[in-house]
Amino acid sequence: MNSSNATVLLIYTGGTIGMIHNEETGILENFNYKHLLKHIPELDKCGADIDSYVFDKIIDSSDMNPDVWVKLANVIYDNYDSYDGFVILHGTDTMAYTASALSFMLINLSKPIILTGSQLPIGDLRTDGKENLLTSIEIASAKDADGESVVQEVCIFFENHLMRGNRTTKLNAENFNAFHSCNYPNLADAGIHIKYESIYLRRNQDNAPLKRFAVYDSNVAVLTLFPGISRNVVESLLSAPGLRGVVLKTFGTGNAPSCSWLLELLTEATAKGIVIVNVTQCVEGFVDMSRYETGAQLIDTGVISGHDLTTESALTKLMVTLGSADDPETVKSDMLTPIAGEMTL
After folding, report:
1. How many domains does the chain contain in total?
2. DSSP β-ladder status, 245-250 and 220-224
3. For residue 129, is it within any domain?
4. Domain that holds residue 294
5. Would you state the pLDDT for residue 83?
6. pLDDT band with cut points at 50, 70 and 90 for residue 34
7. Which of 34, 112, 274, 298 minimizes the number of CB atoms within 10 Å of its CB?
8. What number is the average pLDDT over the span 197-223?
9. What is the rounded CA–CA span in Å between residue 188 and residue 160?
């Protein structure tokens, strides 16, 4: 690649951006990374020195799992001093989960980690992958007047918008504008120029060294409340063997049905040490359990507020936090403390 002041490691995990139609079957199949360069010759002219790391086994987005997050965190950690930025090509379906997980596994970042992908394969005529990838590389290469990275956190770049990774959710399976950061402003918008919103960007002010938490506990679950939910369903989930954490998706600002059996089951679960985090089912807004009686009743059960955490962020933070601590009270404290800009108190 062309030499440049910026060096970028391009990590290819899989996803639609790296797929091509099989002319015989019509099915999308993964193809070799070299084909990516064939379809985007501009990579040689993008002004950065790019190296690539390709996973031995290409991973469909639906098959993403915590072991892969650990592998990604380790690849970035092991190569951290050798590159100015990192771009991860990833399937869109679980991209927000991976971005959230990495933000909790890699603390004190002073360099950008940009996840991107596409809704159409890179070989398609109308693909969105080309611009997503080229702009992600430009963002990963961007330095300020002091020579420091403009972006110093885990982000998703998609359809002209740079978003904090742990604030992002995939809301559209059909349109190019698939991802949104509903409770936090975009970090940058790309038009003719890339306009960075510096007041919203995280900075490693103290130049603290990078910390890696490549551990997790996947003994967690998501419990979505709905009108008419039965005791059997809730009891079955909360009594799952080994369960340590639950993301409880409630109504509105954190409200739940006024069923005595539900409150009893939640109280029993928290008494056993299961950490239950309350997040709203709404796309925008935050949990305030003190606003209504149907929310306040949850406080006495031991359920804690997830404030404006996304489901993806709450779940992955719970996994990483449980992997690092055995004491439920420590886990609760960590869940209530912002560590990567994932929540607003």
Report:
1. 2
2. parallel
3. yes
4. 220-335
5. 97
6. low
7. 34
8. 95
9. 8
CATH number, position 164: 3.40.50.1170
Give the chain's mean pLDDT.
90
Section 129-137 average pLDDT: 84
- Amino acid present at 132: N
User: What's the rounded Cα separation, in Å, for the pair 216 and 13?
Assistant: 20
CA dist 277 and 120 (Å) reads 36
What letter would DSSP give residue 251?
Answer: B
The verdict on whether 337 is a catalytic residue reads no
Residue 341 located in a structural domain: no
Helix segments in 80-119, DSSP class H:
95-105
**Tokens (6 digits) for 79:** 């190569």
Place of tokens 């796309």: 283
Q: What's the CA gap between 215 and 74, in Å, rounded?
A: 11
| pLDDT mean over 147-160 | 94
Mean pLDDT, residues 174-203 taken together: 91
- State yes or no: pLDDT of 65 exceeds 80: yes
Identify the residue with better confidence: 200 or 33: 200
Q: Are residues 30 and 178 in the same domain?
A: yes
Distance CA 54, CA 143 (A): 26
pLDDT of amino acid 46: 75
Find residue 304's DSSP bridge partners: 277
Q: What are phi and psi of 166, to 5 degrees?
A: -85, 10
Beta strands in the chain (DSSP E): 7-12, 19-21, 28-30, 49-54, 85-89, 106-107, 113-116, 154-158, 161-164, 169-170, 179-180, 188-190, 194-196, 211-212, 220-224, 245-250, 275-280, 304-305
Catalytic entry in 7, 13, 16, 169: 16
pLDDT at 27 over 50: yes
pLDDT of 2 > 60? The answer is no
Q: Are residues 83 and 18 in the same domain?
A: yes
Q: From its phi and psi, is residue 302 left (phi > 0), alpha (psi between -120 and 50) or beta?
A: left
How buried is residue 194: exposed, middle or buried, by Cβ count under 10 Å (0-12/13-18/19+)?
A: middle
Q: What is the DSSP string of 227-248?
A: TT--HHHHHHHHT-TT--EEEE
User: Both 156 and 80 in a single domain?
Assistant: yes
